[in-house]
Write a structure and sequence with these properties.
CATH superfamily of the domain at 118-269: Rod shape-determining protein MreC, domain 1
Number of strands: 14
CATH architecture of the domain at 118-269: Beta Barrel
Number of helices: 9
Oligomer: single chain
Strand order of the largest sheet: 3-4-7-6-5-14
CATH topology of the domain at 118-269: Thrombin, subunit H
Radius of gyration: 29 Å
Distance between the termini: 94 Å
CATH class of the domain at 118-269: Mainly Beta
Structural class: alpha+beta
Largest sheet: 6 strands, antiparallel, barrel
Length: about 325
């Protein structure tokens, strides 16, 4: 009972409070699910709770530092020796890859395509079915952006904040990615199962040419993921005569729960600033490859009229 200005007001019961709070929660969830009106509020809350997350991560960082200290210098020396021995081999391979990349870029320019992508490594914080990435809107992230690692596709960005973002993994039950069998090009869809290391391949009949050990790569359909990135390897195929489709399970090739860093993929237009800033340099070699237009500047009036005037003007200053 509350006494306000001589009026007695009875406080609502616990059941009434529960019903009101439940209705408020459901209303906010429906408002956010249909219109995404709470996205800005959620982004602001991530900024406010950032210090709490940093404080919560302190025990993990302290534990890692203690483990590194206990291991001593011997592990570091062995690791340094291994890296020194691998460096010449990696540099030699890098030179080969750079030549292949340059040739590939040249061929793509001739074909008029823009399928080139760039990869930038960022730090991350792994969780069960999502990854919290320590990058946000200011770093150019966008919804649906592919997230990979050194082994294959991990998922894609699902939420973006100011200082950090969230990426959903391919094993999440709400995620699906178009794939194809690398061996024969058979197209399918890989669905997350909720298990940490399993995806499901559905809607393939018994006549489909797929077998255990086949590598599944991204098909590029829909534009969400670039073509040709490894996704999973077929682990088990169950052909039940009572079912219309095969029961296929596959294991993701990406290290979903091991790596502390991920790679983000940007489209080609935001990756080639040098070519974008110098359009004149791109236009010059194009007419030379046509073999017909180089004969036009060889006309006599052009060198006789224009060329003497230019050195005269250049000589005066």
């Amino acid at each position: 009972m509350l006494l306000i200005s001589g009026w007695q007001i009875r406080a609502p019961s616990n059941l009434t409070r529960f019903v009101l709070l439940a209705l408020l929660s459901v209303s906010l969830m429906l408002l956010d699910a249909r219109g995404h009106h709470l996205q800005k509020i959620r982004a602001g809350l991530t900024v406010l709770f950032r210090p709490i997350q940093m404080v919560a991560a302190i025990p993990i960082r302290v534990g890692s530092a203690v483990i590194d200290f206990i291991h001593g210098d011997e592990t570091l020396r062995a690791e340094a020796e291994r890296l020194r021995s691998e460096q010449p081999i990696l540099l030699a391979r890098l030179q080969k890859f750079e030549a292949i990349e340059a040739e590939n870029a040249h061929l793509r320019q001739l074909l008029g395509t823009s399928a080139l992508v760039a990869e930038r490594a960022v730090a991350s914080e792994p969780f069960r079915r999502t990854v919290v990435i320590a990058k946000g809107v200011k770093d150019g992230l966008y919804l649906g952006q592919p997230v990979i690692d050194a082994y294959g596709i991990r998922g894609q960005v699902s939420e973006i904040g100011v200082l950090q973002s969230t990426a959903i993994l391919i094993t999440d039950p709400g995620h699906a990615i178009p794939v194809q069998v690398n061996r024969n090009g058979l197209r399918a869809i890989a669905f997350g199962t909720g298990a940490p290391d399993t995806v499901s391949i559905r809607y393939l009949t018994a006549s489909s040419d797929i077998k255990p050990g086949d590598l599944l790569v991204s098909s590029g359909i829909g534009g969400g993921f670039p073509f040709g990135y490894p996704v999973a390897k077929v682990k088990k195929i169950v052909n039940d005569p009572n079912e219309s489709f095969l029961d296929i399970t596959a294991t993701p090739v990406a290290q979903l729960s091991h790596n502390k860093e991920v790679l983000l993929i940007w489209p080609a237009k935001s990756v080639l600033p040098v070519e974008a800033k110098k359009p004149a340099e791109i236009k010059k070699p194009v007419p030379q490859s046509k073999l017909v237009e180089p004969k036009k500047p060889a006309v006599v009036p052009q060198p006789t009229v224009v060329e003497p005037a230019k050195p005269a003007e250049g000589a005066t200053p």
